[in-house]
Amino acid sequence: MKVSLDVLRTFLAVHRAGSITAAADLLGLAQPTVTAQMKALETALARPLFDRRPRGVAPTAAADALARRIADPLDELEAVVLGHGAPASEPETVHLGGPAEFLSDQVLPALADLTDAGVRLRASFGMPDALVADLLAGRLDLAVCSTRPRRAGLVVTPCYDEEFVLVAAGRWARRVAGPDDLADVPLVAYAEEAPILRRYWRTVFGVRLTRVPELVVADLRGVTAAVLAGAGASVLPAYLCAPHGALRALVEPAVPPLNTLYLVHRPAALGRRGVAAVHARILARLGQAQADR
C-alpha cells in the first residue's frame, strides 16, 4: 500500500499535537477522517503508532522514529508552499502569544510599525503549557515562553534574560536599610504561591521564604502599581521597574536572579513572510534592549 504525503502530513500533525481532535482542527479535516488516515497508516506499516489515552494520544517508539525521518522534509516542503502561496502585497495574519506583561511592555512596541508593512498581528496571553499547546495545534505562529519547552516539533531560541529586582516605594523603601529590615515589610505577589519571591529569597538570601504575601495581583503590572502606591515590596522584572523612579532596589546582589525567555515556533512557520518578519524583529529588538541595559 502506498502512503500519500497527505497521510504523512496528518500523522505529523497528530504526533506534534498529541491529539486527533487538535490535529483535525489544525488541518481543517473532520476528526473521523484523521482517525481513518491513522488507522490506514498503521495498517500499511504493520505496527501501532499511537496509544489512545483519555485525553489525546501518546506516540509509540515507532511513531517517534517515523516523525524524526519525515519531519524535516515535510517542513521544508510546507515552507516552500507557504512562502510562495500569497502575493507579497496581500496582508498576512501572524498569531503571537506570550506572558501578558512582557508581550505588552517589550514585544508589541517593537512590532508596531509592521502593521503598516503588510502584517496583521493577533496577540494573546498565556502560560507556557497553554502557549506550547496552541503552537503545536496551529493556533499560534510564534510564542514567547518563560520556560524552555521540551516538546518535540518546535524550534526554540533564547531571546531575553529577565533580571529580577526586589523593590519598594515610599515609606517602605525608606525603612529598609538591608535584608534584616524586610521582616516587617508587606509582600506583594502575582500568585498565592509567590514563585518569583520564593525563588529570589532562595537565590539571593539562601533561605526558604515561608511568609504568605499580604497582597496578590494576577498581573505583574498590577503588582508594580500596588508597590508604587505603597502596598509593600515585591520582586519585579527590571524592565517594569525602569520607568518608575519612585521604585528603589532594596538589595543589590552581586549576581541578580535571571530568567531566560524563549521565542518558539514550528519549523515550517518561518517560510511565511509575515512570521519571518515578526520573528526577526523580536530577536533584533530584544537583543538590542539587553545590550542597552
From TrEMBL:
PANTHER family linked: HTH-TYPE TRANSCRIPTIONAL REGULATOR (PTHR30126), HTH-TYPE TRANSCRIPTIONAL REGULATOR CYSL (PTHR30126:SF39)
Domain HTH lysR-type: 3-60
Family according to the record: Belongs to the LysR transcriptional regulatory family.
Keywords, comma-separated and alphabetical: DNA-binding, Transcription, Transcription regulation
Keyword DNA damage among UniProt keywords: no
Name of the molecule in the record: LysR family transcriptional regulator
InterPro entries, alphabetized: LysR_HTH_N, LysR_subst-bd, WH-like_DNA-bd_sf, WH_DNA-bd_sf
Organism: Luedemannella flava
Pfam families: HTH_1, LysR_substrate
Lineage of the organism: Bacteria, Bacillati, Actinomycetota, Actinomycetes, Micromonosporales
